[in-house]
Amino acid sequence: MIAASHVNLEQAVADGRFREDLYYRLNVLRLKVPPLRERDGDVRRLAQCFFDQFRAEAHPRVRGFTHGALQSMENHSWPGNVRELINRVRHAMVMGEHPLITAADLGLTPNGPPAELTLDQVRDEAERHAVENALRRVPNNLSEAARQLGISRVTLYRLIQKHDLRT
């Protein structure tokens, strides 16, 4: 069985919002997959993969993506993650009127600036990167990592858990 969640299940168990026994049944092999917006280059490869799959199913008239569509996909923040990408590609293939999928077919701004992130999203990203870098610099030494970050060990533990980082 494969299960996925956008919720930190360890924290949900600790908070009593998720059953502990179910957590341990599901947590046999854990894979942490970062969100699509954090995986440079994956958007194009995944979009092409989904395009090939849907084209084989029933949309042979569509031949690919315009450069503007590819650029727009790279600039989009993908709040709906891979599921959003799948839906946008499928929708563009079904509803598009041209042999090449455009940014407009995908419902994205052509060659527009990168999608704006909220201040909370920017802070979370910066926080996660800072903690990851500190943990890489001083592996197996949480006290030193906390000192370098200018935070307490307790705060570092909370951030590691919040961002689902491995030590």
TrEMBL record:
The keyword Transcription applies. GO terms for biological process: regulation of DNA-templated transcription. InterPro entries: AAA_lid_NorR (IPR058031), Homeodomain-like_sf (IPR009057), HTH_Fis (IPR002197), P-loop_NTPase (IPR027417), Sigma_54_int (IPR002078), Sigma_54_int_dom_CS (IPR025944). Keywords: ATP-binding, Nucleotide-binding, Transcription, Transcription regulation. SUPFAM superfamilies: Homeodomain-like, P-loop containing nucleoside triphosphate hydrolases. Residues 1-94 form the Sigma-54 factor interaction domain. The keyword Cytoplasm does not apply. PANTHER family: TRANSCRIPTIONAL REGULATOR-RELATED, TRANSCRIPTIONAL REGULATORY PROTEIN. This is Two component sigma-54 specific, Fis family transcriptional regulator.
